[in-house]
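#structure-requests
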Amino acid sequence: MVRELYPLAEYAGSLQEAGLLERSVITDDIAEKRIRHISFDSNDMVFGTLFICKGAHFSPIYLADALEHGAIAYVSETSFEADGIEAPHLLVSDIRKAMPLIADMFYGKAWQKICMVGITGTKGKSSTAYYMKYIIDDFLKDQKKPECAVISGIDNYDGVSREESHLTTPEAMTLHRHIDNAVNSGIEYLVMEVSSQALKYDRTKGIIYDVAAFMNIGQDHISPIEHPSLEDYVASKMILMKQCRTACINLDSDYARMAIEAAKSSVHTQKIITFGQDGGADITGSGIEPDKRGITFRAECDSFDEEFRIEMTGLFNVENALAAIAMSYALNIPVVNIKAGLKKARVSGRMEIFSTDSGDLTVIVDYAHNKMSFEALLDSTWKEYPDSFIYMIFGCPGKKALGRRKELGEAAGRYADMVYLTEEDAGEEPVHEISSEIAGYVDEQGCDYEIIDDRGEAIRKAILEAPKNTVILLTGKGRETRQKRGTDYIDTPSDVEFVEKYLRERQNRTEKKEEK
């Protein structure tokens, strides 16, 4: 599909119309040049690029490099003339608000050409996104159409690339590129997680979702560099309910009424569908029956009353499944495809269960990383493994969601018999300092702990030294293959790779002892 290329003057005009343009420093001949590429990465340049200057670590060196390799103008909140860089530029009052406008224009509102499904909430976004993908893929398979695109905290697939993700929701320009790739690949549906940061900082501004789900809200991401208060966090989440045609809302959430009011106040929202387990919802779940490998439950609405099954443990996954059922119902996907998709659904790094051949040790790898998901995982494990010891391995990220250190430390201390604290995307903070802070809260609950900076070593020690009849909960990273150290992402083995390696070692040791 050939994309229309607009001249720089039209980008300036759009920014002006939006009230964002502070000053335009472009000559008439540059103004008429058509923009062939947009990027905020100086390593991603072609001739005719409009370069975006953004980020806390931005340096004029990046701009100089971009101009040398094809950028013909730049957009920034600051002029770099004082740094000796003379180049055409557009100065804007807010670069975050400018980026979605520029991206929307460059990619020709690609989101209008595909069915957009968005999901927000403190916990359950990734699992629900993949439940939806499996359901839609089952529906599309019958029609011999391309698989659904997905943008999540786990990975991204847009018909052109399949990659591990670094942000739950990408920056606006990356997001619009993914959508455009999907459209050009003939993909008809795109499912994505929509984070509070994406909503607050306008990464999804201008996009109207065909259907969107509000899952829940817990006290997370409250810090000076994310959300200064719970009120700010909640307000950010509610934005999605104003950016969709059909809003699916979890009636069991304490913030359901607020979400409903947000949807009702929107000129875009045409329909509201509620889901939940406490009754009174449009889609109601009941009859939950868990076993060691999954959960069976019923879902009832005005057009069906059916039994569904998910092949994932964790009672909290019923809420995620109900959200997927509600969104599928909104999209008129047949029940047969909803049932088949949910039963086949697998979520990389979510509730993945591993055990020794003898069954004396179980390891559950899960991405749980905030208070709500942590407590849900611990409560579910406590109920499903009532006679087992519980060991935990986790950490907290550097310079974000600072409240998690207390919340996760206290939760682990209450439920677990032993806690190993380790690296988890520490970034620019020392791992040991983060772990020591968490340790104080674990210790207050009277739980034993050990700090091991090396994540692989922490996993090894827990698996090899845990007594029989132990469940180890390994949280936070799943199948991710990178750790954020400093400002870089460093390749590392995934948690699953470590688990499989050390379970084999434990099994080998057991067999040798038996031989003696």
